[in-house]
Amino acid sequence: MKILLFGARGRLGQELLRTLAPLGETIASAREGDLPAGVSPANWRPADLCAPEEIRAVVAAARPDVIVNAAAYTAVEAAEREPQLARAVNAIAPGVLADAAVEIGAGLVHYSTDYVFDGRGDRPWREEDPVGPLNEYGRSKLAGEQAIRHSGAGHLILRTSWLYAVAGQSFAKKMLELATHEREITMVSDQIGAPTSVRFLAEATAQLLAQSAGDTSALFASRGGTLHVACAGETSWFAFAEEIFLQVKQLGLPLASPLLRSVRSDDRPGALPRPLNSRLDTTRLRDRFGVAPPFWDVEFRALFPSLFARYELEMREANNSAQASLR
Ligand SMILES: NC(=O)c1ccc[n+]([C@@H]2O[C@H](COP(=O)([O-])OP(=O)(O)OC[C@H]3O[C@@H](n4cnc5c(N)ncnc54)[C@H](OP(=O)(O)O)[C@@H]3O)[C@@H](O)[C@H]2O)c1
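Above are the sequence and the NAP SMILES. Below is the predicted complex in C-alpha cell form.
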C-alpha cells in the first residue's frame, strides 16, 4: 500500500510514521522545513495546506492508494482570533485533499474532534448524533468533515478526544510545568471525556487500514464513513490532573504535588466555551472493525514514565539554552 501522510511533523503524524510503516511505503508531507524524524529525503514532499495548488501537486506526484491527513490547525483558543487560518487548514484543505483523492481514486483518512458537538447531555455521542460546535476550532473541523463527505471520496473520518502524546505539548505536560512554580492549580470538573493517546489512535488507524488488504476503496465503500476512536472510560480535567500527580507520587518522581482545586465551567466567566460532555461512543469501532480501545487510565499509566522522562529532558534542554544565552 502506498500511503501519503500529511502532518508528518505533528504529534499524531510522528506516531503514524511508526505504525503505518509495516503497511507499505509512506510518503511524508509537512510544511517546508527540517525533515520530520524518521523520513528519508526520497519519501519527503513538503506542502503548505494553505496553498491548494501545493496539495494537488503533492497528491498528483505521489499517486498514493490512501491519503492520511494528520495535519490540522489545533490552537483552540487562537482560532477565535484567526478564524480564517483555522478554516483554511481545517475546512478548505481537507476538501482539496478529498477532491484530489477522487481524481486519482485514492481513499482519505482524516481526523476530527469531539468539539463538533455542543456537549449537552451525559451519554456518549454517537457518530450520527446532531452536531453543534461551540467555538471556531469546532466549526472549522466540522466544515472539514462536511467538505470530505460532499466530495464523494471514499473516506474514514476518525473523531477523537483529549489527545496527548509522550512528546510535544499536552495537558499532562502543562500540569507538570505548572507544578514547578504554582502551589495551587484550579481545574474544571464538569467537562467530561476520555484522554486518548496518539499511540492508540495511530495503532487503531493502522489496524483499520490493514483490514483493507490493499483495497482501501472497497473498505471505505463497505465500512467507511465517520468513526469515533477514543480511549474507553471517562474522567474530568480535574480528575485527570489528580491522576497525573498520583502517578508522580507513586513513581517517586522529583516534583512537589500542588493543591488541586475544582471549579465549574460556569465559574470561569470569559473562558472559551468548550463541550461539557465530550464522551465519544466507540461501539461502531468495535462492531465494524473489531478494535477495542484501552481504558484511558491504563493507557495513561503505561505512557506516563516516558512522558515524564521526556518532560525532564525538555526542561534540562531549556535551562541549558537559557544559561548559554546568559554567557
Ligand atoms: N489535540 C487534541 O486534543 C485533539 C482532540 C481531538 C482531535 N484532534 C485532531 O487530531 C488530529 C491530530 O492532532 P495533533 O494533536 O497531532 O496536532 P498537532 O500536534 O498540532 O499537529 C498538527 C500538524 O499540522 C501541521 N499544520 C498546521 N498547519 C499546517 C499547514 N498550513 N500546512 C501544513 N501543515 C500544517 C502542523 O505543522 P507544524 O509542525 O509545521 O506547525 C503540525 O505538525 C487533528 O486533526 C486534530 O484536530 C486533536
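Residues 296-326 form the longest helix (31 residues).
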